[in-house]
Amino acid sequence: MASQSTTTAASKARGLALNIGLNGVSAAAYGGWDGPLAACEFDAHDMAAIARARGMKATVLLTKKATRANMLAGMRSAAKALKSGDFFLLTYSGHGGQVPDTNGDEPDKQDETWCLYDGQLIDDELYFELSRFKAGVRILMLSDSCHSGSVARELAPPPPPPGQRVKLMPASVARRVYEEHQAFYDKLQADVASAARKAFVDPDAALAQVGAAAQASALVGKFNPAVVLISGCQDNQTSMDGEHNGAFTEQLLKIWNRGGFNGDYNAFHARIRAGMPRSQSPNLFVLGKAAGFLKQKPFTV
After folding, report:
1. How is the chain split into domains, by residue range?
2. Which pLDDT does position 186 carry in this prediction?
3. What is the pLDDT of residues 199-241, one digit of tens each?
4. Of 88, 99, 145, 225, which residue is most buried, by most CB within 10 angstroms?
5. pLDDT exceeds cutoff 60 at 105
6. How confident is the prediction for the chain on average, in pLDDT?
7. CA–CA separation, 300 and 293 (whole Å)
8. DSSP for the chain, written as a single string
9. What percent of the chain has pLDDT over 90?
10. Dist CA 110 CA 91 (whole Å)
11. pLDDT of 49 higher than 90
12. pLDDT at 163
């Protein structure tokens, strides 16, 4: 009887997906740099296809539609709609960047960003938006970019192999963008710190607690949803673009094998990582009470 009740409850779970891919950014927002890439839109479409095959309603934001406003609206709509037991898939394929930290939450004095079409989304904003989801919501985040998930990026990543594109905004561009839009990015950090209504704790420090949901929750504070993040590379590496998929997404799709993969998230991450070159080693992080979530088959609504 209990088993039947559990099955019935599980069948009522709702799944939503927001799949983002940018093959470029607006030069007007990035100091004249348009950040050309080739495979990120393919990545977003392929992740949306997985979402739909697993019973989720997927929203795809490609390049010019992948604006700050559209992404934040998509996340906030999902946070409002989903309840305990529901599932949210957030995928990003594009450039990662950095802006100077102004609210004192980053030991390396840099906030990591996702490069959306008309401006960067700062990691403080991203994790604050995630924290607004209800208790018990399961969130899977897949980032095929050079967005760092650790405390500091002290050393510059090695140069890419000849002819390959990296998903990293050049440091010179990052400096120029910040100088041209400093008031905007400084205000974003101040607004997030104010909205959090507490001393803001570095989200990257929490994400560095690999596989340790309890420690991550303690660092972040009260974090209601359960979040699993698999990112494309280590903080001293770069994620590679491709012609049809990014290197990380290509390997993920291969291991997923149209649903043929039957392990849990830890095994999924391990298999993806094992098939990647030594120059790009995907990371696994958790936030919130994610122990049970980690034991599920990936993409299970």
Report:
1. 14-152+173-294
2. 86
3. 444 444 434 333 334 433 444 456 789 999 888 765 555 666 6
4. 145
5. no
6. 80
7. 10
8. -HHHHHHHHHHT--EEEEEEE-S---GGGTTT-----SSHHHHHHHHHHHHHHTT-EEEEEEGGG--HHHHHHHHHHHHHH--TT-EEEEEEES-EEEEE--SS--TTSEEEEEEETTEEEEHHHHHHHHHTSPTT-EEEEEEES----SS---SPPPPPPTTPPBSB--HHHHHHHHHHTHHHHHHHHHHHHHHHTSPPPPHHHHHTSTT-HHHHHHHH----SEEEEEESS-TTS-PBP-SSS-HHHHHHHHHHGGGT--S-HHHHHHHHHHTS-TT---EEEEESS-HHHHTSPTT--
9. 46
10. 23
11. yes
12. 55
Domain 14-152+173-294 has CATH 3.40.50.1460: yes
pLDDT score of 231: 81
Q: Which is nearest to 100 in space by CA: 207, 170, 154, 178?
A: 178
Report which residue type is found at 87. F
